């Protein structure tokens, strides 16, 4: 564990992270669209979520079709994440997820290849972090609305044929 001292020499502990879930998205083939020249520079992209799956301690289900990712590719090559989709737990509970974050390629040519040709990437190719927020009515999952979370890109899960393999994200609660 990392510790830091404040100005008075007191030890400060950084927050801990608790694993919550992994979400694997399938993207709708052929739905990638580019809107060039957005105000402030760069391009806006849009791709539809076809479905997917999620699983974590005490939760499991599917990603409902109809979500969307609308990242903005800044002129400096950084992708500003803006994504929304719905999770449906096995018990029927629907959870709205909104992700905001940053995806930056360690090699900018990889970002261009991924965006323009939808090439597969590895998590090691990118710094990719999001801060999700959740909306849910069920008391069982209300804790999702009362905490801060962070997520990171993972390599795709190897179970079943992809419809249009999208990102796999792992989420953690900041304790």
CATH class bucket: Mainly Beta
**CATH domain topology:** Porin
- How many structural domains in the coordinates? 1
Largest sheet: 11 strands, antiparallel
Which radius of gyration do the C-alpha atoms yield? 17 Å
The poorly predicted ranges are 159-163
Q: Roughly what is the average pLDDT, rounded to an integer?
A: 87
Strand content: over 45%
Following the backbone from N to C, one meets helices and strands in this order, namely: EEEEEEEEEEHEEE
Tell me what the CATH architecture is: Beta Barrel
Structural class: mainly beta
Number of strands: 13
| Count, helices | 1
Helix content: under 10%
Q: Which word captures the global form?
A: globular
CA distance, first residue to last residue:
14 Å
Protein name: UPF0311 protein BJ982_001369
Family: Belongs to the UPF0311 family.
Pfam families: DUF3237
InterPro entries: UPF0311
What does this entry look like structurally?
It is a single chain. The protein has 175 residues and is mostly beta strands. The chain has one domain (12-174): Porin. Helices cover 6% and strands 51% of the residues. The strands form 2 sheets. Strands 3, 4, 5, 6, 7, 8, 9, 10, 11, 12 and 13 form an 11-stranded antiparallel β-sheet that branches. It is globular, with a radius of gyration of 17 Å. The two termini are 14 Å apart. Mean pLDDT is 87; it is low at 159-163.
């Amino acid at each position: 564990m990392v510790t830091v001292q404040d100005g008075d020499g007191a030890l400060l502990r950084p927050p801990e992270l608790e694993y919550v879930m992994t979400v694997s998205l399938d993207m709708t083939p052929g739905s990638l669209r580019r809107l060039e020249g957005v105000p402030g520079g760069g391009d806006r992209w849009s791709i539809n979520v076809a479905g997917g799956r999620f699983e974590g301690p005490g939760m499991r289900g599917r990603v409902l079709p109809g979500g969307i990712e609308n990242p903005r590719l800044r002129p400096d090559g950084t992708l500003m994440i803006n994504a929304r989709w719905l999770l449906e737990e096995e018990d029927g509970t629907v959870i709205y997820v909104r992700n905001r974050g940053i995806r930056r390629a360690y090699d900018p040519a990889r970002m261009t290849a991924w965006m323009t040709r939808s090439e597969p990437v590895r998590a090691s190719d990118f710094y990719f972090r999001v801060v999700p927020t959740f909306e849910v009515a069920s008391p069982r999952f209300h804790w999702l609305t009362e905490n801060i979370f962070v997520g990171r890109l993972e390599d795709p899960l190897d179970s079943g044929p992809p419809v249009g393999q999208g990102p796999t994200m792992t989420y953690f609660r900041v304790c």
